[in-house]
Amino acid sequence: MKESSYSLFMSALFNGRKGSRPPVANPTSIVCHELMDRVGVGFPEAHLNAQAMAELALAGHEVVGFDAVMPEFSVHQEAAALGCQVDWGNRNAMPDAKNFPYEDFSPIHIPENLLERPSMRVVLDAISILRRHVGGRAAIIGKVMGPWTLAYHMAGTQNFLLQIGLGEDEVVHRMLRQLMPVPIRFANAMFQAGADAVVLADHATGNLVSPAQYEKFLLPLHRELTSQIHGPVILHVCGNCSDRLELFAASGVDAYHMEWQVDAKDAVARVGHLISLIGNINNPQTLYQGTPEDVYKQARYAIASGVHIIAPECAVPLATPLENLKAIVAAAHEGY
Amino acid sequence: MHELFQEIRSVIISGRPKEVEAPIQRAIEAGVPLDRLIHEAMIDAMDEVGRRFTAQEIFVPEMLASAMAMKKGLSLIKPLLTASQNVSRGTVLICTVKGDIHDIGKNLVVMMLEGAGFQVMDLGVDVTVEALVEKVRESRPQILGLSALLTTTMPEMKRVIETLEAEGLRDQVKVIVGGAPVDEAFALRIGADGYGADAAQAVALCKKLVEVA
């Protein structure tokens, strides 16, 4: 096969032909201080300006050597468009929402011009810019928040989870249902703008909710999402989700981006034939505080386990050393 | 009384705050000793909630609902307690460190500690080292709890401990740490007195530390 970054990534995404090595990509952010310094573009500019966003994403491919680019570094683009006040942070801090506009669970107003809201348009424009620069050479990944994560942003995480605990099923279903058009419209616009795949980040994480709660509230919605989004979908859920891998595999997604708590070997054995697996190098201990040798070992473990696309487990800490990110690439370039 | 305690336990464990008032009022009217009501029915129930959470039989939503029921129940009893009955198990000052605004884990710890009879002062999120040290000096808690979800804010925990040392306050307070990126090894390395992987472990840790102190 033709061994471009693009081909390796797309083939691995569908568990297809293997080239001489596994691809490396992070469906979530790989931005760190050293990368910002290298390209002269940083936060918060890269959340708000399409050119800056695209340049920083591109550096993941051109400077670090990852096979995919992903330009959406924050998780608050949609929240801002839906009326959250977002503090866009700075060089050392990721953006954060300052209020929860629907903590009373009143009907959610989704603006007519959702995709033209500045925080949404900037991502679509950045994807178009990336398409012009690396389309067909490196894979371009877009990112949308699923209804569960959006509910955290709309009502507050604790408040939303409490409704589940109180058995207010109707309230929970209603909020999730209302938020469904947001990821569908955003993801489809990303494909039209030039994305090759879209990450659906939906934090029904192993540390917060049970597999039964995922199955009851979210799995039917994920099935709807994957059927209505016209392109490959990668699911990202943080935490130890070993107890719900089969449910993810039944959601219609093409891949699952997992954290280090999920054992790579176990995950591949259980669902690797149904969906591709992406991950799962530990961020806090290994990428952030470890040595390139530590990173290399974990990457080789993931490769030996049959993980399809090698990646950090989640958005990397901003102080992650660049050489640690490069150690993932080095491990992958040694081949299978 | 046994049946009434069972009912209160059951309402708290299954997280039904709307139903907690009636059996507690009945217990109060029946003249049940309040300390027994708190310990044998309510704190005992929260111990069970903690056990189920650690065993992953329940998750955060259920724990939040139980904590809400507990809080509501305690608010009915507290005004009736005399000074001598209102003895706390210990005092804990707690916050999420500077640069970090994630508070759900910290809030769970607060709820479980209060449920276990500790007096908790919650400083909230994004708390500077200076503000925290000042509060330690002023309120002299037995335990200081530090939380962080972000890997970027973990180093703040170390700064807190170093500043407490520099200010001569480190011997007066036990420092415990927690949060998703934190582990036992990190706690040891920065010189903390303990680490709890979840809210139930944090409670067990605090009980142990105040016994030793």
Automatic annotation (TrEMBL), chain A:
GO MF terms held by the record: metal ion binding; methyltransferase activity; uroporphyrinogen decarboxylase activity
Ranges for domain Uroporphyrinogen decarboxylase (URO-D): 12-334
Coiled-coil residue spans: none
A GO biological-process term: one-carbon metabolic process
Cofactors demanded by this protein: Zn(2+)
InterPro entries cross-referenced by the UniProt entry: Methanogen_methyltrans, Mtase_MtaA_CmuA, UROD/MetE-like_sf, Uroporphyrinogen_deCOase
SUPFAM superfamilies, sorted: UROD/MetE-like (SSF51726)
Keywords, in A-Z order: Metal-binding, Methanogenesis, Methyltransferase, Transferase, Zinc
Any Pfam family matching the protein: URO-D
Name listed for the protein in its UniProt record: [methyl-Co(III) methanol-specific corrinoid protein]:coenzyme M methyltransferase
Species of the source: Desulfacinum infernum DSM 9756
Organism classification: Bacteria, Pseudomonadati, Thermodesulfobacteriota, Syntrophobacteria, Syntrophobacterales
Automatic annotation (TrEMBL), chain B:
CDD domains: corrinoid_protein_B12-BD
GO biological process: homocysteine metabolic process; methylation; tetrahydrofolate metabolic process
Positions of the B12-binding domain: 89-213
Matches recorded under Pfam families: B12-binding, B12-binding_2
GO-annotated molecular function: cobalamin binding; metal ion binding; methionine synthase activity
Keywords of this entry: Cobalt, Metal-binding, Methyltransferase, Transferase
UniProt domain B12-binding N-terminal: residue ranges: 1-89
SMART domains in the record: B12-binding_2 (SM01018)
Entry's Gene Ontology cellular component terms: cytosol
Family: Belongs to the methylamine corrinoid protein family.
Name this protein carries in UniProt: 5-methyltetrahydrofolate--homocysteine methyltransferase
